Amino acid sequence: MASHVNPTVRRRRLGQELRRLRELKGMTAEEVAERLLVSQSKISRLENGRRSISQRDVRDLCGVYEVEDHRIVDSLMQMAKDSRQQGWWHAFGDIPYSVYIGLETEAASLRIYESLLVPGLLQTPGYAEAVIPGTVPELAPDHLEKRIQVRMRRQERVNEPERPLRLWVVLDESALRRVVGSHLIMREQLDHLVEVSHLPHVTVQVLPYDAGAHAGMSGTFSILEFDDAADSSVVYIEGVTSDLYLEKTNDVHKYTIMYEHLRAQALSAEASREFIADAAKLHADARG
Question: How many C-beta atoms surround the C-beta of residue 244 within 10 A?
Fold first, then answer.
């Protein structure tokens, strides 16, 4: 298969199709697990795309669901084969948020609300080098370098020539005020934010302190959307030991409404650009 095949998205699509076949058969995940002598959690992981799916798994599940159309079986088997390929991020070894990277790489648009730091897709190398060990204090030096490289590689998606990522960021004022690394690093970072905000496919809005209580006070989140209608939107919530992926229509709808409220309370794109530029000047003054 072509090298552009995204294994994360293939697993997700395959899992959705397997869930559809199970529901058409009127079976529960527990019933399927009993038939195959496996755990119910394995069936759930296969259906939510968080686990690699072997062709044998597909064959066994199609047998349980009595799929007689060989074209459907062959298509699912090919998807299972594709899903076991490696994405570009696998070259960096064990990355804890590799599932998210796979989704981000394939996403058509990404909406981010961040309350404490500049999102990884918009970080400068200096900011990344300072913020990563700050948030993961026991990270080994070689792992730090690897994470910085991965973060910079991810940013290529923002300016991909043929298909740039449509990026919308609502950023709390605290992310602009907190000194990460040094005032010089912050000045460079905020100047970069201003520069990137001029791109036609990137929007940055600041949520100032005086906006008061807002819908994002319960935590940060991202909403990923895809061009292919077969790929439903995903809400991503990053955790310390595990991450949360919400795909149910009702969950995505609730977070979408929250994001609309955040956008409405935030400064306009132009006013945000001026706000960030002023904050950058304050860091410059503090530096010197």
Answer: 11
